[in-house]
């Protein structure tokens, strides 16, 4: 017995079991701010033990290679998860990790977040080499003992894993990190995978109902009385105009109208605001599909799926969408983006949305590259050429124009830095962000001029919004927080982060100008534009005409736990692995307290309502497949 225990202690099995347990404990501590060795052992090691006991049972030779491979795989995964969390502020799903190999993707900018301390996950490799050099051998448990013991470990671990899964599988994963804290990283992935693949069970709450009845129900949940769009004020004021919708990469609202060192950051936009409708209280609603989710939201007014890019699910679908609805009115619709069209699965998204054509990387070439694509300047020039041609061949067009230059890490070539920044901003993420947004605004101005020159300005509706935040996560150092606080005159909060501008202009129409402080999200953009164009949607949608409705209930998931919401006054952030519920006042940008013990709290009602809206949107999306 003593002998066999000795052999076990000196086995690879034992060595790697201990090392991996320690690594899981560290991961849990760094990622979830939770020190709980038992949870790491119970939830994570139960699965690892299944794998390594099988190594022992199945293989006679070459086990070390298998162990090393597993160790390396997990260690790299852990570092990937940490970097991901520093970048996005949320822990990745199996889906996100499978996307990390995309070319030209965001992961290039993520590597700046690698920290030396991450190397601790690889420290056992040199230790192993040293051990081997000094001892030149490593004993195995004898096959006999090992077989019995390993079978015991295998069966025990299988039972634990299956029991854990059975207990968790019907629980909703409202927040990845919180779920992982309570049930383990692996269980989070299993349960999510299980939910994603048993969607057929989700029922469409409004099957067989008249479209108007459903829209009324949706509107009621948001606190409004439903009014058919054709009865809204200024319905069709821009009838038969072209539609040009510009999505600016990483554009946040806090720079609009602001100056630094006496220079406006976005002078083109600021000047344009005078002739436009400006919605300053609009928030991003993207999930893990980032830019592509913003494209989806804009064109469908449906909720993105959250835990995976919606574009992954749209292959072969025909979505009720802006291009489809405008197509019925005789519009030719195109989308323009200077990246590889396969990135974010856009080659499947665009046909599903019903765009007649797209212009991507091959069209724009690779000259004048900034970051991972041609400069916005070049992009707008080439897009202008295409738009001229499109307008000469079609009576009306809709163009969705997606910029790229102002993407993280916002590093601009010297000659394109147009701002003279105060010393303290130089070289900081905040300073770089301002420079790149300033550039994006400057070339936008050239694009506007070209549209005017080509005679396309006056007969179009021009809209603009930001796809999502640029300043977030641990990319923001404490110096950035200080600079932003100084710049904004208040703490840079999640509200500042998620607030994006939405601007719409109908040149020549004085009616369509002014600041509208109705709270909205990306989901509201399509209906707002359809109202101006005088097209009553012939489908279910979850946003509304922002100009008409003042109450709202907006969901966001992935970047905040599911069931978080915005209403007219507040941003309610549901509990996650680090914080209890947090409520931010939209006006003061300060935290407010809620009586969570009181079940009649209206926040609880709205939390349930937003879950309902999300479930309806998901089920509707599913029913379209
Ligand atoms: C990729 C570009 C940027 O094509 O739109 O995407 P993001 O990293 O912001 O999702
Ligand atoms: Mn983006």
TrEMBL record:
It is a multi-pass membrane protein. GO terms for molecular function: metal ion binding. Pathway: Cell wall biogenesis; lipoteichoic acid biosynthesis. Substrate binds at residue 407. Its main location: membrane. The active site is at residue 291. It holds the Pfam family Sulfatase. The keyword Transmembrane helix applies. One of its GO terms (cellular component) is plasma membrane. Mn(2+) binds at residues 249, 291, 467-468. It is found in: Cell membrane. InterPro entries: Alkaline_phosphatase_core_sf, LtaS-like, OpgB/LTA_synthase_biosynth, Sulfatase_N. The keyword Manganese applies. Residues 241-535 form the Sulfatase N-terminal domain. Keywords: Cell membrane, Manganese, Membrane, Metal-binding, Transmembrane, Transmembrane helix. The chain crosses the membrane at residues 12-32, 38-57, 64-84, 119-136, 148-167. Belongs to the LTA synthase family. This is Sulfatase N-terminal domain-containing protein. It comes from Halobacillus faecis.
